[in-house]
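To whoever is on call:

I kicked off a structure prediction for a single chain this morning and the downstream step that reads the tokens threw a length-mismatch warning. I double-checked the sequence; it's 284 residues and nothing unusual in it as far as I can see. Pasting both halves so you can look.
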Amino acid sequence: MTITMLGASEIRKLAEDLQLRPSKSLGQNFVIDANTCLKIVRLAEIEAQDRVVEIGPGIGSLTLAILRQTKNVTAIELDERLAARLQETLISHGSGNIEIINEDALRVARLESKPNKLVANLPYNVSVPVLLTFLERFASIRSGVVMVQYEVAERLAATPGSKSYGVPSAKAAWWCDVQLRDSVSRSVFWPVPNVDSALLTFKRHDGTESPYGDEALRIATFAIIDNAFGKRRKMLRSALAGLMGSSATSEALLVAAGIDPTSRGESLDITQFARIAKAWLASK
């Protein structure tokens, strides 16, 4: 049986049946354009053997597009009404059963399906923590596509020295390469959001772990990143003084790591942040 896609009028009817008024607090802007859903799946390069986790399936538009490529799908949906109706909607459009987890994505600690790809239309207010949390918790996820607010996409994909480079871009780079692939029209959503959106692709670095180091080094590196960008206008020796004990200590550790103490966080890439963390941990 061919899997058919949802149309705009059917999505609105399903929402009406569920007495659902899209919630701004939950970031419920549903994709009503089937071509956008199919484009996301193409960018994700999903194949039949892939195991996909989808965050925030909502009514099921993107889920149906994923199911055209693979039957191995786990959907995580916070809204109880949407989670309860999703299976019925998918089956009525030619799909079989999938695993549905009715939970906050940030609270999901285990995924029995061991997904290797992530596809999501992420709520704007939690998109960065959700993506970084899933990269941290689920090493089986090797690549994926997420739709996020355009400004968030710019920050996640930014490179050192650019205006948008900051904590999200530096931390995401620990695990993967991120690319901003395309903009998304506001008109493909219902209700229409007040911000622009974009599609991001990510691909995890080769190997199970990050090439920069183990978990202890990641924690130290992320603490340095937080402090470096928390005091963005300060030179690193000053920005890291509180974390490392004093300006003299931070300057000595920066020199040991081969980093100019007068440089600022926005000029450093993840490799350089990791070098500072190594010097810091070695000094303890």
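Update from on-call: the warning came from a stale cache, not from the record. Cleared it. Sanity check on the structure: The chain has a mean pLDDT of 94.
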